[in-house]
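W.,

You were right to be curious about this one. When I first looked at the sequence I had no strong expectations either way, so I just let the prediction run and decided to look at it fresh. Below is the sequence, 431 residues in total, followed by the output.
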Amino acid sequence: MPRASRLVSAVAVLALGLSACGGSSGGPATAAPGAPGVTKEPCPEAIDKSKGCIYLGAISDLTSGPFHELGAPLTRAQQAFWRRVNLQGGIGGYEVDLTRHVVDSRYDPATHQRLYRQMKDKVLALAQTLGSPTTARILPELRADKMVAAPASWVSAWEFEDVILESGTNYCFESMNAVDYAVDTWKSKSMLVVHYDNDYGADSLGGARIAAERNEIAFKTVATAPGAERQSAAVAAILADKPDLVLLTVGPADVGAILAQTSRAGYQGRFIGNTPAWSKALLEGEDTERIAAVKKQFVYVSPWKAFATDSPGHTAMRRALGAVRPNDNYTSGWVWSYPLKAVIQRAAANGDLTRDGMLKAVRQVTRIDYEGMLPAQAGDFSGDPDSAAFRGTVFNVPDPGELTGVRVARDFFTGPSARGHKLTVPCSQAS
C-alpha cells in the first residue's frame, strides 16, 4: 500500500501549518514526449555527449538563512555525488545534471514555493528541498505534480509520503533518543526544550515530550526564532528553571548564543542539539567562554557518522569532493542522494523515466545501498511508516582535534522510548 494512503488526515494537517541502487539500470530508458527534466540532448557538462540528460533541482539555503552553513556544503556534496554517477556511466543512457537548477530560498517558505513553481517543469525530481516548513509549504504541489523529492530535513511526517525520499532517523526519534541518553548517562530529572516554532521544532518537541513522559521527568518548553540576538527569552527560561537537560532544536548560531550567555551566568547543565544544531564554528573564534561551554556541556546528535568515517561511502565522498575543508554537512548531502539514485535506476530499468514512472519506482524500491554510511536496515522502505522508520541515533561530543569537531560517543543508539513508540501519526500531531 502506498505510504501516502496510510495517513491522509495527519499529513494534510502538516501541509497546512527503494531494490537497491547498484543493480542494473537496464538499457536506454525512455521518457514520454515532453517528460519534464529528461532530454535527448547531453547535459551542459556532459562526460559522454552521446547520452541524454536528466535534470534534477535543488532548493536550498545558500547565503543568508539560518541553515546556510548546512545548505552550501550539502549542495556541493550532492553535485559531487551525481558527477560520480556520471563518471560511472550514468543511468539508463542518461547522465544527471544538478548544476542548472539550483536556487536559494534562504529558508523562507513563500520564496521556496515561488522557486519551486519556477523550476517544476524543468526537472524530473528534486535532489534537495531544504527545510521542514519550506518542504511542507510545497508538499501539496509535490503530490499533485508527482514530483519525487529528497528532503534536507528529518521530520517524521516524511515517513508517510511517497513523494518524499527520507534518509536517517527523524527528529522525533532523535529527540526520544536524546532524552533516554540523558536519563541513562547523566540521570537527568528535568528538561527544557528550546525550539523553533515550525515543523522542525514541532517534530522534535513531540518526540521529547513522549520520552519525557515515559521517563517521568519534568518537562517545559520555550519557542524561539532564528537569530542570535533573539535568544533572550530562551536564555532567561534556562536560567530561571535550571533544568538538568536543555534540548536545542535550533541552528548553530543560536546554539552558540545560548551557550555563551547561559555559561556566563553560571548555568552548568547539559545541552543536546538536534542534527541541524552543529557547526565546527562553535569551537572557533575568540569567545573562549562559549568554546569552553560547548566542549564541556554540549552533545550533538546526528543520523550518521562524521566526514572522516572509514566506510566505502564516506571514502567515495571524500574522493569526489577533493580538497575541501571537512564538514559533516557534506556527509548529509551525500547520504541524502542514495535513495533518489535508487529510484532513478529503478525507473530507468522499467523504461519509464517520467513522473509517473518515478512514483511507481518509489513503491518498488525496498532496499537502498548506502555504501556503509547507514546500517542495512535503514534502507528498507517496504513496510508501513512504523516498521520502515529507522530509529538509530549517533551521539557525538565536541573535539577540536577531529576534522569536523566531533567524536562519536555512542554509535546508532536506540533508546527504549524510540524502540517502543508506535508511529501512527507524525510526532508533531501525537497527543
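Here's what jumped out at me. The mean pLDDT is 91. And, maybe more interesting for your project: The first helix runs from residue 8 to 16.

Coffee later to discuss?

I.
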